[in-house]
Amino acid sequence: MLREVQIDIRRQRAKAVKFQIENLGKNRVFSDYRITNPESGGQYTVSVKGFDTGDNACTCPDFKANTLGTCKHIEAILDQLKDELPPNLQKKKAAVTRPEIFLHYGEHLQLGVHLPPRHSDKLAKLALTYFDDKGLWSGRGKYPDLIRDVEAVPEEVTVMSDALEFVDREIERAEMGARELEWVKQLEAGTLDLNLLSVPLYDYQMRGVLFLACRGRSILGDDMGLGKTVQTLAAVELLARERGIQRALVVAPASVKYQWETEIRKFTTRPVQVIDGNPEARLGQYEEPTFYRLVNYEQVVRDREAINAWKPDVIVLDEAQRIKNWEAKTSKAVKKLQSRYAMVLTGTPLENKLEELYSIVQFVDERRFGPAFEFLHEHRVLDETGNLKGYRNLDKIREKLAPIFLRRTRGEVLTQLPARTDNTVFVELADEQRGPYEEQRVTLARLLQKNYLTDLDRKRILASLVNLRTICDSLFLFDKQTRVSPKLDEFAELVPDLVTEHKLVVFSQWETMAMEAAKVLDTLGVGYVLLHGGLPGKDRKAVLERFQTDPACKVFLSTDAGGTGLNLQTADTVVNLELPWNPAVLEQRIARVHRMGQNRPVRVINFVTRGTIEEKVLRTVESKQALFTGLFAGDADEIPFEAIGTGGFLDTMRELVGAGGEASGGRKFPVESQLEESRKETGGLRPPLATTATLWHGVAQIVEGACAVLADSGAAGQIPPEVRERLHAAIRSLASNLGPESAN
Predict the structure, then answer these.
(1) pTM for the whole thing?
(2) Which of 97, 168, 375, 647 has the fewest Cβ atoms within 10 angstroms?
(3) Rounded CA gap, 530 and 661, in Å?
(4) In terms of pLDDT, which residue wins out, 563 or 188?
(5) Cα radius of gyration rounded to whole Å, the chain
(6) Using CA atoms, how far apart are residues 487 and 465, in angstroms rounded to an integer?
(7) Distance between CA atoms of 33 and 605, rounded to whole angstroms?
(8) CB 196 within 8 A of CB 229
C-alpha cells in the first residue's frame, strides 16, 4: 500500500508539470525520450520499453533511489503515449533486437540481461550461468568472470554505461575489501608500515585511514578532537597510491578552509588551492591545476557546475552536519556533486532526529537506507494525530550503517588525553536586568497561551526568545545603552588569574557580547584576537596564527564561527559566556581545545544566570544528548521521547519561561493543531511538521545564505554590526539551537 501511494504521488506530479518531451529515436513508442522541466530546467533521458511499472528507466536521481521502478518523468511520457495509443497496443512491450546487460533499479541494485529471440548457445549458457529465470543477477557468478565471458560470445553484447560502472565499483569493492583485511592484520601485528604522512599516526587513526580508503564512500563519525583531518589526509594519500586518484575536493565551513590548507601543507607534499574571491575570480581558479581544492559549503551552491567540471576523484565533506536538513538549498547542491570516492566527516551525525542522519547518509549512498518514505514509515513512531512520539527498529539502522560508518569515542581510544573539568559559574540578574527580563518573559508566556499564532505572533515569539537570552548576557545587547552585565563582571574577576598560566578560548553566540568581552580585556590590558562570522577567510587565518604564535595573545574571542573545525589546542581553558542549547554545538566548542595534541588538563567554564531561562537550558542540553547516545552508543531498539524528556518545542518553551500547560480560564494550548491542519492540507504527503520552529526555518536558511554571499564577496564588513548581530541571533538562537527542522 505504501509503495502504491508513492507511485500515485509521482503520477500526480507528472500531470501537474507541463513537461517538454522529445522522441530521440525512430520508433514511435518504444524509444528513448528527452524530457525537460521548463520550470526548473531539469533534463533527463527516459527509456520506454513497456507500460507496466518496472519496464522503463530514467536517468533522474529519484528513479535511481526510490526503488519503485518509476518516476514522474516516466509517468509523464506514458501518460502522453496512452492518449495516442489504443488500449490493445498498450499491452505490448518493446521487442528485444540485441543482447544487452543493464542495471535494474529495484529494491536492490542488480544486473539484468535482455536476450533477443534468436541468440547463440554460448550466450544462452552465459545467461543461465549468471542470471535467474527473470533475467536478473542470480549471485552464482563473479563480476570479473561475467566480463570475460561477455567478450567470448559471438554476439556483440551492449553493456549499459551504468551497469558497467556498477560492475567496476563492485570489482573494486572486493579488491579493496581484501586489501583492508590484509592491512588490518598487519596493523594488529604491529607490522604495518605505510608512511602516508609526515607524522606518525596512532593505531586507531590508521584503522580509520584503512576504513575510509577501502570502503570507497564512507562516514567517519569520531568524537571531535580525535584527528579526523589527519586520518582523511592519510586516506586520500593511500587512494592516490593504490587507485591513482589525482583530484581531491574538500568542502568545509568557511571558517576552517585555511586551516585545511595549513594542515595539507604541513602533513603532505600535495599542491593545494583555496577557492576564494568574487565569482569571476573563482571561475578562473577552477581552471588552475591542483591536487587539493578547498571550497566552503556556500560556494558549492553557486559553483557546482565548475566543481563537477573539474571531475574530483574524491570529495571530503568536513562538518557534514551542514547537510543534515535534506530540504535546504545547500544540502541539495552538495548532493549533486559527483565523485567516485567520498569521505564524510562529522562528530555529530545526529543532533535532533533521524532524518538528519538519513540526509548525511544520502550523500554517501543514496540507496543505503532505502527511499525516504519507507525509512520514515519503518523508524518513526507517531501518535493517533500524526505527531512524532519516538523512534523504533534502531538495530536495522545500525546494521545498515555498519559497512560505511566508523565512530570511536575519546573514552575508547584516548586514555592519554588530559583530564577535562567542567565548572558552572552562576551569576544573578542585576536589578537593572530584572524589569526587562520579566517583561519579555511575560510577553512570551502570553503568546504561548494563544489559540492561534499569526505571522506577527511568531515574529514576536522569536524576538522574545532572543531578548531573554541576550538580557542574561548583558543589558547592552538588549537596549544598546546600558552596560550592565554580572557575567562580564565575573569574567573580569576570573581573567587575570587565568591568563597568568593559561591561554583562553572564550565563546559567545552573539558577536556583540564577544565585543563587550573584548572591552573588558582592553581594560585589563590582556592581549586577544576576535573571530566572528563577518570576518573574511584570509583574516581568519591571520587571527588563528597570531593566537597560536604570539605569547602575549592570551585570549581567543569567538562566536560559533570558531566552534567548528579550528584547532585551538594552544589554549587549555574554554569559557562559554552562555550555554548553546544544542549539546553538539557545546561539544564542538570544547573540542577546539580538548583534542589530539593537547598535553595539559583542560578546564571548561560555563556562565549561567540563575533563576532564568539559562538555568533550565542545562536540562535541555542533557535530554537532547540522550537521543544521540541512544542510537550510536546504546543497543536499545526503540527510543520513546518521554523516556529522554524530548518534548515539543512549544512545551519546552512553556516550561522554560514558566508558562503552565493551560492558560487562565482553563484554556488548552492547541497551537500545534495549526501545524496538523497544515499537514492535512497537503494530503499527508509530507511528514508532519514536528515543531513551530519549522515555520521559521526556511527564513533562517535564506538569511544564512544571504550572509554567506556577503561574507564571500567581502561585503559583510559593510553591514552595520547591530544588523548583522540580529541576523545571526535569529539564525543561531532558533534554527540551529532550539530544535528540529522540517522533515523531508
Answers:
(1) 0.66
(2) 97
(3) 43
(4) 188
(5) 28
(6) 19
(7) 63
(8) no
Q: How many CA atoms lie within 13 A of 351 on its CB side?
A: 29
Give Cα 673 to chain centroid, integer Å.
30
Give the ranges where 407-529 is alpha helix by DSSP (H).
410-413, 431-448, 455-473, 475-479, 486-498, 511-524
Which whole number is the average pLDDT over 561-580? 79
- Supply φ then ψ for residue 574, to 5 degrees: -115, 130
Chain Cα centroid distance, residue 708? 17
Mean pLDDT of the chain: 82
Residue 249: strand pairing partners: 293, 315
Dist CA 66 CA 706 (whole Å): 33
99 has pLDDT over 70: yes
Band (pLDDT 50/70/90 cuts) for residue 215 is very high
Q: How far apart are CA 540 and CA 562, in angstroms?
A: 9
Q: How confident is the model at residue 629 (pLDDT cuts 50, 70, 90)?
A: low
- 295: Cβ–Cβ under 8 A, 6 or more apart, which residues? 249, 250, 251, 252, 257, 275, 303, 307
Whether the CA torsion 10, 322, 254, 531 is positive or negative: it is positive
Q: Please give the average per-residue pLDDT across 485-512, as a whole number.
A: 90
All CATH 3.40.50.10810 domain ranges of the chain, comma separated, are 217-226+244-413
For residue 87, what pLDDT is reported?
83
DSSP structural state of residue 429:
P
| 502 vs 57 pLDDT, higher one | 57
The three three-digit cell numbers of residue 63, written as one number: 528513479
Dihedral over Cα of 136, 141, 145, 150: its sign: negative
Yes or no: say if 534 and 711 are a contact pair by the CB < 8 Å rule.
yes
Q: Which three cell numbers stand for residue 171?
A: 570489482
Residue 114 φ/ψ, nearest 5 degrees = -115, 125
Question: For the segment 221-268, what is each residue's pLDDT rounded down to a tens digit?
Answer: 988 778 899 999 999 999 999 999 999 999 998 878 888 998 999 899
399-442: per-residue pLDDT in tens? 999 999 999 887 777 665 667 878 888 888 999 999 999 999 89
Confidence of residue 355 (pLDDT cuts 50, 70, 90): confident
Instruction: Compute the average pLDDT of residues 174-183.
Output: 95
pLDDT tens digits, one per residue of 726-742: 544 544 444 333 333 33
Q: How are strands ordered across the β-sheet holding 57-58?
A: 20-23, 32-36, 43-47, 57-58
Task: Name the superfamily (CATH) of residues 217-226+244-413.
Answer: Tandem AAA-ATPase domain (3.40.50.10810)
Beta strand pairing call for 57-58 and 109-114: unpaired
Domain 420-636+648-655 in this protein, CATH class? alpha beta
Residue 41 CB neighbour total at 10 angstroms: 7
Q: Which residues contact 397 (CB under 8 A, 6 or more apart)?
A: 354, 357, 369, 379, 631
Whether the pLDDT of residue 706 is over 60: the answer is no
What does the pLDDT average to over 630-637? 58
Give me the sign of the Cα torsion angle 691, 695, 697, 698: positive
Ramachandran area for residue 227 (φ above 0: left; ψ -120 to 50: alpha; else beta): left
Cα(391)–Cα(354) distance, integer angstroms:
8
**How many Cβ atoms sit within 10 Å of the Cβ of residue 450?**
15
The crossing angle, in degrees rounded to 10, of helices 161-189 and 228-243 is 120
Beta carbons within 10 angstroms of residue 739's beta carbon: 26
Q: Which three cell numbers stand for residue 357?
A: 542522519
Q: How far apart are CA 705 and CA 233, in angstroms?
A: 29
Find where cell 583530564 sits.
Answer: 419
- CA-CA distance, 632 to 732, in Å (whole number)? 26
